[in-house]
Amino acid sequence: MPAMTHYAVLIATIIFFLGFSALSGCASLTRPEPERRHYLLQVQRPGPVLERPMEAPILAVRSFRTAPAADSRGIVTIRSDGLVQRNFYDRFFVPPGEMLAGQFRIWLGQSGLFSLVTGMGMLIEPDLILEGYIQELHQDLSHGKQRAVMAMQMLLLRPTRSGDMEVVAQYDFNQIVDLPDTSIDSLVNGWNLALKHILVDLENSLRDQSFQI
Predict the structure, then answer these.
(1) What is the rounded distance in angstroms from the CA atom of residue 79 to the CA atom of residue 77?
(2) What is the pLDDT, as a whole number, of residue 147?
(3) Beta partners for residue 118, in sequence order
(4) Model confidence, pTM
(5) Is the pLDDT of residue 154 over 90?
(6) Which of 51, 76, 192, 198 has the fewest CB neighbours in a 10 Å radius?
(7) Is the dihedral of CA 100, 104, 110, 111 positive or negative?
(8) At how many degrees (to 10) do helices 184-208 and 96-109 cross?
């Protein structure tokens, strides 16, 4: 075979492989990413919305602080082998501290215990402040079970004339809900049930509390 023919074959081979590599690269670049799914925890207070007595205290609910293990919009799972996994595609729509504090404001605002329930930073000075700390918020697949875990600590504070905060009450809540399977939908339903139990317990505790403003 003449030298020119060898050269032409070599050039054609190089062009073929470069073209194949380019097509492969385009295919990988256009491959669709898995879709992110966003979730909100939401509960409905049972019964009618109760009237807000004008003489009742004003409550401010701060955005909750969150433990480092739960301080993420990515849903956290403790696997059966003990590995902690944070899901990149199944996520909360808003950070957990803001999401749960919002649910507490809505629920307590319908309880009839307070004349007004707000967030912090409003022009009206609150008589009482509710702080929350989310200790645990994850799916637990250890020990051969599927469970939704939610644990938090609440502090009810009263601002004093000196500018300090007086602790009126402390509440600790720990809810573990068994799940039928490991799906995210079942997990969210389990968390909603846990949240509802916590809010019912908190409302009952606050109803038994004597507020002296």
Answers:
(1) 6
(2) 96
(3) 60
(4) 0.81
(5) yes
(6) 51
(7) positive
(8) 50
Lowest-confidence range among 10-19, 53-62, 177-186, 191-200?
10-19
- Using an 8 Å Cβ cutoff, are 77 and 69 in contact? no
Structure-block tokens of residue 34: 């898995």
Closest C-alpha among 96, 170, 186 to residue 135: 96
Q: Which residues of 82-117 are buried (b: 16+ CB within 10 A; e: fewer)?
A: eeeeebeebbbeeebbebbbbbbbebbbbbbbbebb
Cα–Cα distance measured from residue 191 to residue 179, given in angstroms and rounded to the nearest whole number: 10
The confidence score (pLDDT) of residue 8 equals 55
Contacts of 169 (CB under 8 A, 6+ apart): 155, 156, 205, 209
Nearest to 69 by CA among 181, 182, 188, 149: 149
Mean pLDDT over 130-134 rounds to 97
Other Cβ atoms within 10 Å of 158 Cβ, number: 18
Q: What is the pLDDT of residues 82-119, one digit of tens each?
A: 888 888 888 999 999 999 999 999 999 999 999 999 99
d(CA 131, CA 138): 21
DSSP assignment of the chain = --HHHHHHHHHHHHHHHHHHHHHHHHHHHTSPPPPPEEE------SSPPPP--TTSPEEEEPPPEE-GGG-SSEEEEE-TTS-EEEEEEEEESS-HHHHHHHHHHHHHHTTTS-SEEE-TT-SSPPSEEEEEEEEEEEEE-GGG--EEEEEEEEEEEEE-TTS-EEEEEEEEEEEEEE-SSS-HHHHHHHHHHHHHHHHHHHHHHHHHS----
